[in-house]
Hints:
The chain contains 14 helices and 32 strands. The chain is an alpha+beta fold. A hairpin with a 5-residue loop joins strand 22 (382-386) and strand 23. Helices cover 26% and strands 33% of the residues. It folds into five domains: 3-190, Rossmann fold; 203-287, Translation factors (Elongation Factor Tu (Ef-tu), domain 3, Beta Barrel); 305-376, Alpha-Beta Plaits (2-Layer Sandwich), CATH 3.30.70; 382-490, 2-Layer Sandwich (Alpha-Beta Plaits); 493-604, Alpha-Beta Plaits, CATH 3.30.70.2570. The radius of gyration is 29 Å and the shape is elongated.
Amino acid sequence: MDIKKINLKEFTPDRVRNFSIIAHIDHGKSTLSDRLLEYTGTLSDRTKKDQFMDKLQVERERGITVKAQTASMFYEHNGTTYLLNLIDTPGHVDFTYEVSRSLYACQGALLLVDAAQGVQAQTMANFYLAFDQDLTIVPIINKIDLPTADTPRVTRELDTLFDFKENEIILASAKSGIGIPEILTAIVDRMPGPVGSPDKPLKALLFDSWFDSYRGVICLIAIHDGVIKKGDMITLAQAGISYEVLELGIMYPEPTPMQALYPGQVGYLITGMKSVKEAQVGDTIYHAKKPVEAFPGFREAKPMVFAGLYPVDSEDFEAFQEAIEKLTLNDASVTFEKKSSAALGLGFRCGFLGLLHMDVFNQRLEQEYGLTVIPTAPSVLYKIKLQHSDEKIDVESPSDFPDASTIETIYEPIINATIIVPTDYLGNLIKLCEEKRGIQKDMSYLDEGRVILKYQLPLNEVATDFYDQLKSLSSGYASFDYEEAGYEPSNLVKMDILLNGKAVDALSVIVHKDKAYTIGRGLAERLKKAIPRQLYEVIIQATIGAKIIARERVAPLRKDVTAKCYGGDITRKRKLLEKQKQGKKKMKQVGSVEVPQEAFLSILKKS
């Protein structure tokens, strides 16, 4: 189709379909997107590449979606051409708010389930997210041509869990192109068109944005009512700032300029914004001086997990700072402030939406900017009620923890976790959740071979190596998803690590009092292995307040100063050894212990 001849005004809301694809990681979401774009002629042979919608290297490597993307397609059905807008959303819980805003711009969703793996934890979480938004959901069983596919079993799971009947389910293989025409027909026939009027004042939803170094911020918008044209003056409701529309259009599949966008349509908008912080996800756009009621559910992105990031070489700090500033141009949900650590030098204290978000950010720093980063142990946002005060203060770092004698109650964030696990590994995972202070809320059988576990867990316990342990204890078969569940009071303490009597702030952790002794002893033992021997002895201590709960010693390197003494009086040897002892004592007072990167990484593996 010649895009230059397209008149978007012809595509009234009844000829528009806005939909999303929701699926667990590796169930074939990106491949299905590719096939839909190819089948509708949106992608030519010249522009075709696998995982077209995944623009970032980290997305292509991990098979996850980090940034929302859109693509517009034109599809002819029963003699009528329809405009189909695919809104590709992140699948992970860390980006739930962005997903909810993207789904708000949709009227339908394709629920994709792997024919071999069946329903997974994220499948359930994403289904309920779409269900709560009242979207029309079309179930698809993908990868039916795999030798390990078990379509009847997955069909039963979809019926048991979500009440989908067999005749509603489309069987497909995105890789082979099986079922693609049926999926496109279902999008047109089963999903409703958007509701909107061109005669009403402009009301549009801003559901994502990214930064382009040449053109500034590019916003993805969904038009609810009214018409937006090039040259219009628009206002962002939450930011309260007005801009001129410099360019707008549709993603076909790259940005393709148009003169106007009409009700129900999805496209991009360029206004010359300098920072994505101005373009907040969920904001409402209207014509300047013609305000409308804002879309409900707007909230600012709030970090849940915090960690210090430091460059391995302090000489790289300027490059490190520049890299973080550039990355946050594209990700407004990351907060950062400069921090100085006695052990690690200059760095940043960063806030992330969750653990995957933090992991992806670190990986992008290393891949896109060639930096090696030392992360400190992730911590979560605690709320602390002080004595003689009604207010609760927010504490995100162990170094900010107030004196224990002034604290009345500490509240920690709780999550509701859903784990789907084969019955063979059930015992292992129940034991893991109990160790992590989990409270079992529900256990039900998905089929004869798999169990759905629902646990309430402290986010602090999940913040380090929980996911790794979950995968290793289940041989990689368990799937895990979670949602925030508020705050609860807890018996937490701050544990400091002392090296030769000096506290190392970057090694401090917040732990539950009942587990403090075990964690402290484990940390001291791992640090003993990680810290190289010095010319003087190094004493490692784990302390809570003034109480030492674990102690280890790294023996000094020893030079045999008595080697030149052969024969003669024993007092000569004693004199030399005493002299050496005094020298080492003096050295210990002035020398600083070199803490290698492995020592900080060992903290991340706290048990």
